[in-house]
Amino acid sequence: MRGVTAFLLAAIGALSAPSIAAANEACTGRPDALGTFRVLNVDAATTPRVGRKHFPDTLPLADKELVLTFDDGPWPTTTPRVLDVLKAECVRATFFLLGRNTDAHPGLARRARAEGHSIGHHTYSHPLLSHLPLAKAEAEINRGISRDEFALTGVARSTPSTPFFRFPGFASSQPLLDRLQERGIVVFGADVWASDWEPMSPDVQLQKLMQRIERVGRGIVLLHDTKAQTAAMVPRLLRELKARGYRIVHVVAAHGAVTN
């Protein structure tokens, strides 16, 4: 089994070779930067649900490959700081936006996309969707997507340009998971997080997160760009990842979502 896994990961790496060049192109002349190692196309047909804290499997990542994700933004006092350090380190991440925050700060959503980050969706107002009737839950998902799309494209639509979604509080239900898969939308869980919804210093948060990353070895990292402690920690996190030999993988959509 170990040999099969190694073969599959090697094949993934070979198929991604052009994407590695594309990811690193923006970092020319910055050998000290963490950079983005490669780009991974993600499709709901093959990976409808990812993140081992919530689902049986995660993205096809090699050892020491990480996908950085940020939830709940954009937020005016913290998201720019996170975007600044990602740009300085040539790192591309995925931002799961809240529609109400995108409504309030559309320029930040557009900046994230313009700087090469992937845009996912996180509902409009962050309710626990498993507590809502199915129709209301899906309406909340669609409202969030619509407001994000309006900020990004000028067109309010419930079919996302990038079909990535994360449940608030990871409160999913099987009918909603099935519906999102039918629509071609990939549901992201996580493999590791820093518990940054809890108050703590940036130093404690970094220590906690690095211990957890070392334990899992690879996967999807969940952070919140709305948290001041996280914005303060991210520069040190990226330098620590570089020092320990971790590589950043940028996830992008292989195909568009299905029109309703």
Total helical elements: 9
What is the percentage of strand-forming residues? Answer: 15-25%
CATH level 4 superfamily: Glycoside hydrolase/deacetylase
Q: Structural class, judged by helices and strands?
A: alpha/beta
Uncertain stretches of 5 or more adjacent residues: 1-18
CATH architecture descriptor name: Alpha-Beta Barrel
Radius of gyration: 17 Å
Shape: globular
Overall pLDDT metric: 91
How many structural domains can be distinguished in the coordinates?
Answer: 1
Helical residue percent?
A: 40-55%
CATH topology: the name is TIM Barrel
Q: How does the major sheet shape up?
A: 7 strands, parallel
**What is the highest CATH level, the class?**
Alpha Beta
Number of strands: 10
End-to-end gap: 40 Å
Structure description:
The protein is α/β, with parallel strands linked by helices. The chain has a single domain, classed as Glycoside hydrolase/deacetylase (TIM Barrel, Alpha-Beta Barrel), CATH 3.20.20.370. The chain has helices spanning 2-15, 17-25, 79-88, 99-104, 106-114, 134-153, 174-182, 202-216, 228-243, and strands at residues 38-42, 49-50, 65-71, 94-97, 118-121, 164-165, 186-188, 192-193, 219-224, 247-253. Strand 3, helix 3 and strand 4 (94-97) form a beta-alpha-beta unit. Helix 3 (79-88) packs parallel to helix 9 and helix 8 crosses helix 9. The protein starts with a helix and ends in a 7-residue tail after the last strand. The model is unreliable at 1-18 (pLDDT under 50).
